[in-house]
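Fold this: Putative MFS transporter
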Amino acid sequence: MNPERTSWPAILMAVGAGVAAAFQVGKAPIALPFIRAEMGLDLSQAAWILSIFAVMGAGVGAGMGTMVTRLGSRRLLPVGLFILALGSLAGGVLPGFPGLLAARVVEGIGYMLVVIAAPALITLLSTPAQRQMAFGLWGAFMPFGMAVSMTAAPALPLLGWRGLWLGMAGLLVAYGLLVHYRMPRPPRPPRPLESHVLRDVADTLKAPGPLLLAATFIPYSATYAALTGFLPTLLIERMGVTPGTAGLMAAGVAGVNIIGNVATGPALRLGLPRRKVMAAAFAVMMVGCLGIFPSETPPSLAYGLCLLVSACAGLLPGCILGSASIYAPRLTLVPVTLGLFMQGSNWGQLLGPVVVGAAVSAHGWPAASLVLGTATLGGVILALALRRAGKEP
């Protein structure tokens, strides 16, 4: 069921929910030096603060998609924001490293509900002709949210990382109430009487494309999460900048990802095959990652390569998420397909920082080039394999 016209105010509100959720991803990298100092953590331990956020999504993303299908994206979007607020509040008040990790898991549950429910709403509130444009906006939620939250870095010496967590909790509650009371109710697609959770997941997995696209999300999110997550630490260690300056520079890297997000729609409207756009983006990411971390790379060049990698990487979320309505077996399974996509994304967010953190702790920063170069090469291969799905030329 498609609407007669696109409801852009409602779509912007849904994108705003994603931005508020992305704040919870972006707050961790800038707070990492302060958390490590307070708790005495090495880099491999601190990596779990970035990664454990994605544990639930990596395990049950598709299952959460079926829950959104049954209970409704409009109903679950504010619930996800409230769960995020609860996790952020708990992280700000619970003592010790285990308490912080447990709170991040709660945040991850709320995050998954938001990033499945919001694009499902966008699908229901947009016309087919304008859906790719709407998903181009949605694809920018992560870099925009991360960039904005990272600009809080200069205030952290005064505010403290726990103050940042508590402030985010208040913001999430406020936005959750806004969505609950102001988000219009979209037309809900009819659900077949024989629909069943396991059958929905099985039908989605058997369809050509969704599983491959979910796998393609893994190297993207692994690279993006590791690069943006450790960038403030890299800048402090390699360039000797202050934590506040490092946070602002990392915000710039996260922000330029929006360039690729916005360019996705025009690139696909020109008739460029989705798989070739994705493969080209991964190829640039691979070359950039191989040059960022070696010790002989000048710091200014390394930072420039970070900007290039992030900008080109932005083409990938829009290409993948915007294909949900194309590759879903039927419209009612778009949330399940999105859940599967986000499951792949969360596997990348889980593995990227942990593997890179362990490699850097053992062998130094140059080891990150090998890890991320291999991941992005895998992305090129997976993107080109999309031709076998046969949905697009």
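The chain has 18 helices and no strands. The chain has one domain: 8-389.
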